[in-house]
Write a structure and sequence with these properties.
With 147 residues, the protein is an all-alpha fold. Helix content is 76%, strand content 0%.
């Protein structure tokens, strides 16, 4: 039962689950796009795989999974009803930062559509949004375990 495992071990288990489930499954759109490009006998280039903004989709999914960790952990039956103020502020900050990252990603995705080279914008800007979303989601997974 996860309630009897010490906190550092619970966090390590959650991080492993996050990596295996959220990160790997989250990257499926990119992997499938690469598979489709390969199946069409096209060259596997960054532009052919990442030029449609798939990483923005992955970033939104990762951020949602991190926020979900916090929200569902709050409603866990083994969670104490009274949580100290530091933990409440930390969780609220993690959720707000995650929402801001998704909003920035959506704005960047929308503004890239009007640019001269949409493919280049998607490839260059989506990496930053994906890294920020990954760090945000990872932070949410850790913050969800604070008591």
């Amino acid at each position: 039962m996860i309630g009897t495992i010490p906190t550092p071990h619970r966090i390590a288990i959650k991080l492993i689950k996050w990596t295996l489930v959220s990160l790997l499954i989250g990257m499926l759109p990119v992997l499938l796009k690469a598979l489709f490009v390969f199946a069409d006998n096209q060259a596997l280039t960054k532009a052919s795989i990442l030029g449609s903004g798939e990483l923005f989709l992955v970033a939104a999914g990762l951020t949602a999974s991190g926020v979900g960790e916090i929200v569902f952990e709050l409603h866990s039956p083994d969670r104490p009803m009274i949580i100290n103020l530091y933990v409440q502020i930390t969780r609220a900050a993690a959720i707000i930062i995650s929402i801001v990252i998704v909003a920035i990603g959506a704005a960047v995705y929308g503004s890239a559509n009007g640019a001269e080279s949409v493919t280049d914008n998607y490839m260059n800007l989506s990496w930053g949004v994906l890294i920020a979303a990954s760090l945000s989601s990872l932070s949410c997974v850790i913050v969800a375990e604070l008591k």
